[in-house]
Amino acid sequence: MEKTLVIYASMSGNTEDIAKLIGNSLEEKAIEVTYEEIEYCSIEQLLQYNRILVGSYTWGDGDLPYEAEDFYDELDGADLTGKKIGCFGSGDHAYPKFCEAAVLFNERFKHTGAAVYAEILKIEGSPETAEDIEECIQFSAAFAEWCAVEERVKSNVS
Length: 158
Hints:
42% of the residues lie in helices and 24% in strands. It is an alpha/beta fold and 158 residues long. It has a single domain, classed as Rossmann fold (3-Layer(aba) Sandwich). The chain is globular. The mean pLDDT is 93.
């Protein structure tokens, strides 16, 4: 069974709700999911998984939340070669940099040697509408399919 680590930073519960929707969707595809709050996650923990999803809310005008800063800094210089990573976030369109924390993580992961999923899931506030829920499910399915393709390509090259 493929294992996926879902890491998130959530103050009001919005990003956690997105993480759970994504995780539940993966579990329905017989993928084992482990959840971890970002402030308790380390690079060593990431190394135990091939598939990793990272979500964060955005603070202020496009800033990382306080509890995500150490993890973000720890990624600088990390070697995550062979890992497949996707990013998601919750935000508020009232701010000019909507879901910027997810974008920052996506960019940081590109410098770790990991394969980074090009799409970033961005949800306004809490995923309460049927459209938001479907967007989370579709993101989850697309990420899982992308991972499977990446793994097939890698095994054909080896």
